[in-house]
């Protein structure tokens, strides 16, 4: 039969992925020698195609040639021909054999020593049937001459023969498993489980050899081998230390000390049998370092001794390790008694103080101790590695598994699936983490399989990466594709580890008492009352409505609510918090992001609980705009006026009419009101920032609304554009950047007709715009109305709503009173035409900041007006000590004092020319007009009174200018202000002391 040209065969080899064509041709020639199937060139081409599937085709071909040669030496030419015929004629056998030879040098060496085992790979059931654990155990015991049916199987073969036979049988089973793994893609979890069964059987066989070594004394002890770590979790690697704990008891009638000595000898001998190196190599080390007291403690303990240790001395990490404990060899009844003894302690460990923080710190220490030269290639311990997944899953198990027994699974992927099914991990996150972990474990297996060495470092050399990449099915550029896939999965693992492992909710759930975490209906009513719920029956109805059924949302709620209840109980109104949470949850129940955000994203759940149970004002906003929950996961700091204006203008211009346009503007305002309120409630913004944020929000609202009404009125009148320039001047607390939640927007409207425009038409246009703006912003809607108050205009309510710039100039030149100059101290031309705003500011500056200061008569007039305000405007029945605005040391006292300083001295001191109270106070100190101590007293009172005023509105949902008389509302205000439970009297005392000191300063500075 003719042979294909050498150059043609060379190209075929290179296309199949072989690197050394010359060596490959020599191997093929040796295989074709004699009367074999490979004497046919077509058969050779078929073999080359099969080699193209192997991880390392060159290695696979060289190992096949070596195995065939060795087989001829040990079994004769007929067996060699049988091997080569099978490779040619049986596609499945070829795929298994070449897959193993191209992936594992170690197993290729094993086949060279025991070439007859190639027939193990001809089994047609190999690809579909996983051997039962009992059959694997029986084969391993038989290899050492022990009867698997004996109560105490004992090796009967000579010791060295038994030890080597155990290794040969172990490798035989491993060979079959590797073939299934590489050729049939059975899944990393199945491979790990089969490896664990193989390890369990090997431990039993090693114990049989140990009994033979120890002799008659072996019968005095019951010895159980409890697997820990990956073997215990049924997820062992190809090569790994097998972590164990040995538990012993005396056999019936035996002395305990004698039995413990015998058990210790048995355990030591077992470890030697597995770990010693012989002509047939080694199996793996047996590591008993996880036992009580570690390597310093006795190798073997009784059940009672273990129980005493775990009761009194064990640390958090030891219970985390016991999560995977499983009796695997020796006296299984004793081993199961051990696991039954430790299990309740494992599932209570999350209640330990600082448990979550300790586990997190332990993971960080592991990363810190990775050798620097390995850090970037560490598959197991490095950032984004296997340990990140395992620690995250175990932490979630230990926290939630104490009340949810479905999570008590030792295997990582099974536990992850249970966490996902139970709603503790989002579906997408669970799926991504599963795929990433499976990829990383498969990569770990492929790396270890090459030389059957315990390693977790991804190689960096090109040949190794190429072999690994091809074993994953990457063929275009195997090394580069493998690195890219590894980087992707590392990023996913790191992202999800940070999200799950450092989830704030974990710490809160871990700190809950067990009966609270279980949310048992029987104890719920009394527990709710103890948590501070006024109406436990209603609260119980809300809980049942949210947690009943088998919906995924109900599962997640069952995980969330125990800790939410604890957070509600720390806030002023737990009942309102729970009711609000139910309403928000019902509104957003169909939104995939809502419960996921509460479970996963930072402080969202804690912030939501605090907001709902503290503030009727914020709750009302959130019920109208439930998607505001999204804001709680980010920065609650106020947005700029420019950003708000841009968003509002864009929203308005998408609408078809003025009413809809302003409704969209108000919707943005409603959301931002919630952002500001939530930011204050959770402590991210202070009272000065709140006032400025509310004022900027009002600027943006008026700017967008003015744009809408200007276009609408022009369209209604058939005009191409506005005949006049318009501006809105902020006044009062709005102008001072000191708005509170309940404040109106005090303004002046000013316009300036364009050149050539009819003055009357321009005035009519401006008047219509101002009226429409006020109407649209005050109209009933689902958001709080914005009352635009123009009563501070010249001539008050009797004067025109809108004036021209020249009209303002004429009025102020002829008729202005000192109180109007005082009011203009807060004027800030904030909205509308920029040039007109600048012109208005230039017009009023000389009036409010007179260069010569304030005349003595005007000082007297200011004081006279203040005295009238104090006596006539204080509401009937109001307490002058606790009225926030007009009381002693209240807002009016402080602001009038500052404004008098401004009118008297701002002409000479530019720093005083500000509408803001606190800025003016600081400027007065810098100008030596006010002692620093006096300024501090005034600033402290102003901030405290403003905070109390905001808190009253937040708590009650209504404006309030007095400290609440209702004790529950007063207690709620105190909690919002940061006073602990039961400290409302302390809040009142602080308020009275602070305002009394401020009032003393007012007496000296304002009244003289």
TrEMBL record:
Positions of the Glutamate-ammonia ligase adenylyltransferase repeated domain: 96-339, 606-841
Classification via SUPFAM superfamilies: Nucleotidyltransferase, Nucleotidyltransferase substrate binding subunit/domain
GO terms under biological process: regulation of glutamine family amino acid metabolic process
UniProt keyword terms in alphabetical order: ATP-binding, Ligase, Magnesium, Multifunctional enzyme, Nucleotide-binding, Nucleotidyltransferase, Transferase
Catalytic activity from the UniProt record: [glutamine synthetase]-O(4)-(5'-adenylyl)-L-tyrosine + phosphate = [glutamine synthetase]-L-tyrosine + ADP; [glutamine synthetase]-L-tyrosine + ATP = [glutamine synthetase]-O(4)-(5'-adenylyl)-L-tyrosine + diphosphate
Cofactor entry: Mg(2+)
This protein's GO CC annotations: cytosol
Renumbered residue ranges of the record's region Adenylyl removase: 1-505
Enzyme Commission number(s) from the entry: 2.7.7.89, 2.7.7.42
Domain PII-uridylyltransferase/Glutamine-synthetase adenylyltransferase: 360-501, 865-1005
Stretches that traverse the bilayer: none
GO MF annotation list: [glutamate-ammonia-ligase] adenylyltransferase activity; [glutamine synthetase]-adenylyl-L-tyrosine phosphorylase activity; ATP binding; ligase activity; magnesium ion binding
Stretches the record annotates as Adenylyl transferase: 513-1008
Domain of life the protein comes from: Bacteria
Task performed by this protein: Involved in the regulation of glutamine synthetase GlnA, a key enzyme in the process to assimilate ammonia. When cellular nitrogen levels are high, the C-terminal adenylyl transferase (AT) inactivates GlnA by covalent transfer of an adenylyl group from ATP to specific tyrosine residue of GlnA, thus reducing its activity. Conversely, when nitrogen levels are low, the N-terminal adenylyl removase (AR) activates GlnA by removing the adenylyl group by phosphorolysis, increasing its activity.
Similarity-based family: Belongs to the GlnE family.
The name this protein goes by in its record: Bifunctional glutamine synthetase adenylyltransferase/adenylyl-removing enzyme
Natural source organism: Nocardioides perillae
């Amino acid at each position: 039969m003719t042979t294909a040209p050498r150059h043609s065969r060379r190209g075929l080899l290179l296309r199949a992925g072989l690197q050394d064509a010359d060596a490959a041709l020599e191997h093929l020639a040796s295989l074709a020698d004699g009367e074999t199937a490979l004497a046919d060139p077509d058969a050779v081409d078929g073999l080359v195609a099969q080699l193209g599937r192997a991880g390392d085709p060159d290695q696979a071909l060289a190992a096949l040639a070596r195995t065939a040669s060795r087989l001829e030496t040990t079994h004769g030419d007929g067996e060699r021909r049988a091997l080569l015929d099978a490779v040619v004629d049986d596609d499945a056998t070829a795929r298994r054999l070449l897959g193993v030879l191209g992936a594992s040098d170690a197993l290729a060496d094993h086949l060279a020593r025991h070439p007859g085992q190639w027939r193990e790979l001809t089994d047609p059931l190999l690809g579909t049937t996983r051997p039962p654990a009992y059959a694997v155990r029986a084969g391993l015991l038989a290899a050492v001459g022990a009867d698997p049916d004996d109560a105490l199987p004992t090796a009967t073969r000579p010791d060295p023969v038994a030890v080597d036979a155990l290794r040969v049988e172990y490798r035989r089973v491993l060979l079959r498993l590797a073939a299934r793994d590489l050729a049939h893609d059975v899944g990393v979890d199945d491979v790990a489980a089969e490896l664990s069964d193989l390890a369990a059987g090997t431990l039993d066989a090693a114990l049989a050899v140990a009994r033979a070594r120890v002799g008659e004394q072996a019968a005095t002890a019951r010895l159980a081998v409890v697997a820990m770590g990956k073997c215990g979790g049924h997820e062992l690697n190809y090569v790994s230390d097998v972590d164990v704990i040995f538990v012993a008891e005396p056999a019936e009638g035996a002395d305990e000390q004698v039995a413990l000595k015998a058990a210790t000898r048995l355990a030591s001998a077992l470890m030697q049998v597995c770990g010693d190196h012989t002509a047939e190599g080694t199996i793996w080390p047996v590591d008993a370092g996880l036992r009580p007291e570690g390597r310093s403690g006795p190798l073997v303990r009784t059940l009672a001794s273990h129980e005493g240790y775990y009761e009194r001395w064990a640390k958090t990490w030891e219970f985390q390790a016991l999560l995977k404990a499983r009796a695997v060899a020796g006296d299984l009844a004793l081993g199961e008694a051990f696991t039954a003894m430790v299990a309740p302690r494992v599932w209570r460990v999350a209640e330990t103080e600082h448990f979550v923080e300790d586990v997190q710190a332990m993971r960080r220490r592991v990363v810190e101790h990775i050798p620097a030269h390995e850090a970037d290639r560490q598959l197991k311990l490095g950032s984004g590695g296997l340990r990140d997944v395992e620690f995250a899953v175990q932490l979630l198990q230990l926290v939630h598994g104490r009340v949810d027994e479905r999570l008590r699974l030792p295997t990582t992927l099974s536990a992850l699936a249970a966490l996902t099914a139970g709603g503790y991990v989002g579906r997408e996150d669970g799926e991504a983490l599963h795929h990433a972990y499976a990829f990383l474990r498969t990569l770990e297996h492929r790396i270890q399989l090459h030389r059957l060495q315990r390693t977790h470092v991804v190689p960096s050399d090109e040949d190794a990466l190429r072999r690994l990449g091809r074993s994953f099915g990457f063929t275009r550029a195997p090394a580069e594709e493998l690195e890219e896939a590894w980087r992707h999965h590392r990023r996913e693992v790191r992202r999800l580890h940070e999200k799950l492992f450092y989830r704030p909710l974990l710490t809160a759930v871990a700190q809950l008492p067990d009966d609270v975490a279980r949310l048992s209906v029987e104890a719920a009513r009394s527990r709710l009352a103890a948590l501070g719920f006024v109406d436990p029956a209603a609260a119980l109805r809300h809980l049942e409505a949210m947690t009943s059924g088998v919906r995924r949302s109900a599962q997640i709620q069952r995980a969330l609510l125990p800790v939410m209840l604890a957070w509600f109980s720390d806030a002023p109104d737990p009942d309102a918090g729970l009711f609000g949470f139910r309403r928000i949850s019902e509104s957003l129940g169909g939104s995939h992001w809502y419960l996921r955000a509460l479970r996963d994203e930072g402080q969202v759940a804690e912030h939501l609980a605090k907001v709902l149970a503290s503030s009727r004002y914020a709750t009302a906003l959130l019920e109208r705009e439930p998607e505001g929950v999204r804001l709680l996961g980010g920065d609650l700091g106020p947005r700029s006026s420019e950003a708000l204006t841009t968003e509002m203008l864009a929203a308005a211009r998408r609408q078809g009419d003025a009413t809809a346009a302003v409704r969209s503007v108000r919707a943005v305002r409603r959301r931002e009101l919630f952002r500001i309120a939530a930011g204050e409630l959770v402590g991210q913004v202070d009272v000065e920032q709140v006032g400025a944020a509310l004022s900027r929000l009002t600027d943006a609202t008026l700017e967008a609304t003015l744009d809408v009404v200007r276009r609408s009125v022009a369209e209604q009148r058939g005009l191409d554009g506005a005949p006049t320039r318009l501006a809105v001047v902020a006044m009062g607390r709005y102008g001072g950047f000191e708005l509170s939640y309940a404040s109106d927007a005090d303004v002046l409207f000013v316009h300036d007709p364009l050149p050539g425009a009819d003055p009357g038409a321009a005035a009519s246009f401006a008047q219509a715009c101002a009226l429409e703006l006020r109407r649209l912003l005050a109209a009933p809607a689902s958001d709080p109305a914005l009352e635009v108050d123009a009563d501070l205009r010249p001539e008050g309510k009797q004067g025109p709503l809108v004036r021209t710039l020249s009209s303002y100039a004429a009025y102020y030149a002829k008729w202005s009173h000192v109180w109007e100059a005082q009011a203009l101290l807060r004027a800030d031309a904030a909205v509308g035409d920029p040039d007109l705003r600048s012109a208005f500011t230039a017009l009023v500056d000389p009036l409010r900041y007179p260069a010569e200061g304030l005349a003595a008569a005007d000082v007297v007039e200011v004081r006279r007006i203040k005295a009238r305000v104090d006596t006539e405007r204080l509401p009937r029945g109001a307490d002058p000590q606790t009225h926030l605005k007009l009381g002693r040391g209240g807002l009016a006292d402080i602001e009038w004092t500052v404004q008098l300083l401004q009118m008297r001295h701002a002409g000479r001191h530019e720093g005083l020319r500000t509408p803001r109270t606190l800025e003016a106070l600081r400027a007065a100190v810098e100008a030596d007009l006010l002692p620093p101590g006096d300024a501090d007293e005034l600033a402290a009172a102003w901030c405290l009174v403003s905070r109390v005023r905001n808190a009253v509105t937040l708590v009650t949902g209504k404006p309030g200018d007095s400290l609440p008389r209702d004790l529950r509302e007063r207690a709620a205000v105190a909690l919002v202000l940061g006073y602990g439970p039961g400290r409302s009297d302390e809040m009142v005392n602080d308020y009275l002391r602070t305002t009394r000191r401020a009032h003393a300063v007012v007496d000296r500075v304002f009244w003289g």
